[in-house]
Amino acid sequence: MAKIETVDANLYYGDFHALKNISMKMEENTVTALIGPSGCGKSTYLRLFNRMNDLIDSTQISGQILVDSEDIYSKNINVDELRMKVGMVFQKPNPFPKSIFENVAYGLRVNGEKNKTYITDKVYESLRQAALWDEVSDKMNKSAFELSGGQQQRLCIARALAISPSVILMDEPASALDPISTAKIEELIHELKKQYTIVIVTHNMQQASRVSDFTGFFYLGELVEHGATAKIFTQPNNKQTENYITGRFG
Amino acid sequence: MTHLDNEFIKLRMQLFEMWSLVISQVEMSREALLNFDKGAASEITFKEKMVDSYELKVDRDCENLIALNTPVATDLRFVLAVLKINTDLERIGDFARGIARFIKKCPKDNLNPELLKVCQIDELMKNAIEMLTDAKKALEYENSRMAISIFSHDDFLDDVHKHSNKIIAEYIKSHPDEIEEALNLYSIIRKIERIGDHCNNIAEEIVFYLEAKVLKHSNKKKV
Amino acid sequence: MTLERRKELERSKKRSEKIAFGTFRAMSLLVVGILFVILGFIIIKGISVISWDFITKMPEDGMTKGGIYPAIIGTFCLIGGSMIFSFPIGVLSGIYINEYASNGLVVRFIRLMTNNLAGIPSIVFGLFGMSLFVNTLGFGDSIIAGSLTLGLMTLPIVIRTTEEALKSVDNSFRQGSYALGATKLQTIRRVTLPIAYPNIITGLILSIGRVSGETAPILFTVAAYFLPKLPHSIFDQVMALPYHLYVLATSGTNIEESRPMAYGTALVLIMIVLFLNLIANALRKYFSKKVKMN
């Protein structure tokens, strides 16, 4: 059973047809990379899964978008609950102007968790999972803004992990980071894969090939090709895919 | 045309230059054998040095291309194919030199034409040269059909090689004074057969590059 | 291009650069200069009458002697009163416009109206305040009528300030919060507002500065010509610094003798505004630090 599945997903921004009949399956505990030129719809597709597109006016969605075989756009779905199950990490590290501890605890607090020991345990655990614990264990009450960009991004990952999601969406998580921080994030993705299903949007083809098990190539709102990353990067079926990954696009 | 395309064109040109050298080596070794020409034999040895330096250069360029441009898909297959073809060509050059060495070291002034004839040396060499030239063309025109057709030539070489021990044995019985040459010729047949094998490998690499199909160790070598 | 030509071009580039920067610098120095001239003028003329008595005593002898104590108190009462009215309404509607309302016709209408409101001359506010609060609602000339009028006048500024402050909060913070399952209200309370606080507060205090200097809106609604006592309730009249200044300068019983008093009053008014701005700056620093260290 696929963890995430879309069947003929379409999305319109007003008159603009941003996603065209996307059907795709993502298995549990895999990393799927979405690649494609800017404006191809890969980020929009990613944001279907935690309904972030809802924040934009005049979007229309059709088709089935299933997480754990449940249509997440049906009426009886609670969006806040969905977002606890499907965490997200953004392109720019966006920690809240709070302490490191409070940043990670935020998700728990807004979702009504009051038990202090539970919160503390969960925060520490998440920081360890995000490979940040060693660097911040002695400055829990310092502002998150004092961390470096790479550390902030891992803090954002820890923040997402704290509410125990089963899916993590990453929207170009390393595009604003230096190579060493990028390598750390990529290493982390390999580690997190064991427990979570990860979908990552990236402009960096090498990153896609390094971290993902499956790759989907988007172009002009269509899913041109989807398959095992090793296959896509050695023998893509589609000429467009080949041109894109070999840098001969357009 | 991307920067990478230019790099590939340079690499391809180097490979073709090396390829032409090797072809001329093999052609000369045929001449040398048929005419027992010791001068041609020395030239083969000289060309071998050039081939070796080409081999090193192509290897280094492939290494740089991979390290600096991280090619993927067709680009990656091309570099990998070039890397392997490079090795094959160098080995073929080695065999040509081996033939030349035999002629240079041979104390006699000529070979018995009968020996050459029963061993089908001329046909063998022609076939080997044709395979090598066809393979080059196949890559030049990016034509995988042409590459696949090379496999059938190899059958002839294999066939002759398979029966050559008997033929040589017969010949030695009837010409006991030419034992040494006959045995040497046996090893030359073996060398030509190996040239054919390497051409086969090259053809496989070309198909891998063009069609992303691995023909190695499979029985799909029919058109 | 020859070396000579290149050097010449280089020189002419440098020259225009110098001229442009010189002009810009001269203009900004001019502005600062004018400010200092005004300040200096007021200080030189007014410093002589400033004393502890001037600030804490009632006016005497047809306002030629004594202090301006009731006017200071009156001004503070009006500031406080107008704040109580305008801040909650203004901040809440600012939040509504920026965070809740979808960017449609309604919001555009509200925005247009607040902009229009901001453009209305203050004397019109005064008249309106008089007719609504003083007469129709029967508050009479009183602190409440004056505060409401002033509050009404500052409302657009407060709304605008709040809106701008919220708008400058990067959307990625909101998205980050939503992505963790937070509701809109939670996001506003825990993330957006704390980030916007420094800017909101600065804007609010600057609007107070404006309130404290307005004369027209209080002219018909609260200000007393001469009232040497402190107010007891919000329905009492009070004196106010700007109006007192106006009176001293134009219609006192003895203008020549009360002139130093006028400059003194002006100085006190400027000091209050300056003081408020300093507080605004300090609070802004405090809050932005707190936001980071929280």
Structure, explained:
The complex is a heterotrimer of chains A (250), B (223) and C (294). Chain A has helices spanning 42-46, 79-85, 100-110, 116-129, 133-136, 149-162, 179-192, 205-211, 229-234, 239-245, and strands spanning 4-13, 16-26, 31-35, 59-67, 70-71, 86-89, 167-171, 197-201, 214-219, 222-228. With 250 residues, chain A is α/β, with parallel strands linked by helices. Chain A has one domain (4-245): Rossmann fold (3-Layer(aba) Sandwich). A six-stranded mixed β-sheet of chain A has the order 6-7-8-3-9-10. Chain A has a four-stranded antiparallel β-sheet with strand order 2-1-4-5, with no helix packed on it. In chain A, a hairpin with a 2-residue loop joins strand 9 and strand 10. In chain A, helix 3 crosses helix 4 and helix 6 (149-162) runs parallel beside helix 7. The longest helix of chain A is centred in the middle third of the chain and has 14 residues, at 116-129. The radius of gyration of chain A is 18 Å and the shape is globular. In chain B, 84% of the residues lie in helices and 0% in strands. Chain B contains seven helices and no strands. In chain B, helix 1 packs antiparallel against helix 2 (38-69) and helix 1 (3-35) packs antiparallel against helix 5. With 294 residues, chain C is mainly α. Chain C has two domains: 3-49; 52-293, MetI-like fold, CATH 1.10.3720.10. Helices cover 78% and strands 1% of the residues of chain C. The radius of gyration of chain C is 25 Å and the shape is globular. The termini of chain C are far apart. Chains in contact: A-B, A-C. The interface between A and C is medium-sized, with 31 and 23 residues.
Low-pLDDT runs of chain C = none
* Mean pLDDT across all amino acids of chain B: 89
CATH uppermost class of chain B:
Mainly Alpha
Describe the global form of chain B: elongated
CATH superfamily of chain B: Phosphate transport system protein phou homolog 2, domain 2
Q: How many strands, which pairing sense, and closed or not: the largest β-sheet of chain C?
A: 2 strands, antiparallel
The largest β sheet of chain B comes out as: none
Number of helices of chain B: 7
Most extensive protein-chain contact, per-chain counts? A-C, 31 and 23 residues
Q: Return the average pLDDT of chain C rounded to an integer.
A: 85
What is the CATH first-level class name of the largest domain in chain C? Mainly Alpha
Question: What's the gyration radius of chain C in Å?
Answer: 25 Å
Q: What is the N-to-C order of secondary-structure elements of chain C (H for helix, E for strand)?
A: HHEEHHHHHHHHH
| CATH structural fold name of chain B | Methane Monooxygenase Hydroxylase, Chain G, domain 1
Oligomer: heterotrimer
